Amino acid sequence: MKNQPEKPKVKTRAKRSVRILWRSFIVFLVSLVLLVVAIDHGLIGYMPSMIELENPQSALSSDVYAADGTILGRYYVQDRSNCKFSEVSPNIINALIATEDARFYDHAGIDPIATVRIFFRLGRAGGGSTISQQLAKNLFPREKKSFLTLPFVKLKEWVLAVKLERNLTKNELITLYLNIVPFGDNVFGIRNASLTFYNKTPDKVTVDEAAVLVGMLKGNTMYNPRKNPERAKNRRNTVLDQMVKYNYLTEGQADSFKDHETPLNYHKIDYHDGIAPYFRQVLESQVKAVLKDMKKPDGTPYDLYKDGLKIYTTIDVRMQRYAEEAMQEHLTELQKQFMAQNGYRDGSIWTKGGKSIDNILTASIKASDRYQSFRDINMTEKQAMAMMAKPNKTKVFAWNKLHYKDTTISPIDSIKYMKTFLQSGFMAMDPFTGEVKAWVGGIDHTFFQFDHVNVNTKRQVGSTIKPLLYSFAVDNGFSPCGIVQTSPQSFPSMPKPYDAQPGESFGDVPMKYALAKSLNNAALYILKQVGIDAFVDFAHKCNITSRMDKFPSVGLGVSDISLYEMMGAYTMFPAGGTNTQPYFMVRIEDKNGMLVKNFAPTQKEVINPNTAFKMVKMMQGVVDFGTGGRMRHRYGLMNQIAGKTGTTNNQADAWFIGYTPQLLAGAWVGCDDRQFRFRSEALGQGAAAALPIWAFFMKRVYADKNLNITPNATFKAPDGFDDCGIGTDGGGTPEDKKGKKTGADDEVEEHGARTPANNNDDYE
């Protein structure tokens, strides 16, 4: 009885505890709400606006497109491109939802069931994040992660997730997520992941391929099918099981996919690899120059590597491939012949080549990255040279399927080895529109980045300059059938008559014959008649921008001019006198498809149509009976072709620029250093070293009927054309027609006598 009064005290204490708990809970809820409001309004930490969430500033790669829409390459910091929801296969969507967020369509950004797990796994990875939460995390990555900060970070992600769900549809959320997630190998977004790992767009991805791609999201490296194929396969099977669990697949369907491998078609577009790497290198600098002074609508400058631009070009993928194949087909064999020469075969060129060769080697060694790295760590020149002489394992270029071979060689010997490779440049274009169809700047971009088509890469053009000289003369009254002298010519600037063909006598010949046979003294005679200054001015009118010194030898091609410039100048012949500058950019669009800039060719008439067609007829003679005769009798191309060979001093440069009624193409061959050259004109002349690339290319083009480039096309004479008796033989003589060769395969060297065949003299 005495203890009964104490019962109310117990009840009072219990009630007080309950009230405290409720008050604490209410305080917690109010604090949580206030915290959420503060986070949502950016009062605690940074909270992005909805505009920022809908338009994430992810770095997007800029894509380069060929004429048919094929992706040639990308420029990027992160290899990422966006796609639309409609461009993603349902297989990918289903695999993603089944694996990452099975209740995606039922929650509003936070999955209550999964969230409970967070409190039991605090500080450990995985388990509770919805797709919306993962999206928030990817849009604004966590700067720090610790046991104490994780609750706040998670809360912020929840707020972002709910905010995203309120403002975006489920399809928009899925699309945004798939566009930003990483897949490893510096690939971001489902579009580039599909293209990289399976060489197909996301809408074409199969169920098992989708399972592999979605499986990679758990660990980009661990489940990368290229680096860890077995782990990727196991993860793929887990994703397939999830798809069965949530009724996206039947067990039988999943088992059928598990029973076989999911083959990769890895197609990472590397800067050096893929089609047209030299072109992409030139395009990169051109686009940057175009964008330099342009601003985006928001006033900020364009960034080629982050803004997701779309660059549309004129390149024809098929012609580009044929050009690369033609170069390889010819140079694989030509390199063998080149290295069979004395001095190259035994390496004595490096010991007997004289001071010029020594200087080339020394300069190349000191310019190499390896030598510079030694000097950067304070090695003396002597120490660095000693290190350069030590053999080590490396890869060097080789004309094989892989384009490289593994070897043990010193850096110095590696430089010697690489220096003796023949290089080449090739370009094909439509002479009427100016569209560049193919651009091959060298033999292999991985080992040789120097581009030999680029307007800034200049080499002596040799006799390919003569059609410009002849066309200027014809446009000023000369007749292709008129007589020109082939004797030495006197010029005020020279102490004695200039004889560019010593020991050779042709007498007076028709102008058309002189061009077909590439007679140097005849070119000097014509140059003397039209005037050196006037001819140089005309060449510049043809858009030759390189310097041309006003000496008599300018008419023989001693000037250094790029293949790009020469191609532009030659357009006037098949195009009826209209000079059309080559162009390769059609337009640039921003990431939303809005036009940034359009491009169009520059055209002007430089010679009249009659002159142009007379030049066509004369240049047909080069191929029919002149220095380009092997086009017919060796390569079997019997259709209408006009062109000009070119060979420079001591066979350092070989050229052929030719055209059909539909296509213009040009090839140059030589070593990067002019001291390395053919010792025999039989191998080093333009007809032998450069023309075959042109022939191999055109054979492939003609074989592809889908290109609509036909060997049956004919050159069309302008109305009222007066052929002055030039006829169809292009300057051929009766002896030529009977099959007698009068130098059809031999081009006279510009300076002095022909180099004797198989000359194996010392290099000095």
TrEMBL record:
Keywords: Carboxypeptidase, Cell membrane, Cell shape, Cell wall biogenesis/degradation, Glycosyltransferase, Hydrolase, Membrane, Multifunctional enzyme, Peptidoglycan synthesis, Protease, Transferase, Transmembrane, Transmembrane helix. Its main location: membrane. The keyword Glycosyltransferase applies. Residues 69-243 form the Glycosyl transferase family domain. The chain crosses the membrane at residues 20-39. One of its GO terms (cellular component) is plasma membrane. Pfam families: Transgly (PF00912), Transpeptidase (PF00905). One of its GO terms (biological process) is peptidoglycan biosynthetic process. In the N-terminal section; belongs to the glycosyltransferase 51 family. This is Peptidoglycan glycosyltransferase. It comes from Flavipsychrobacter stenotrophus.
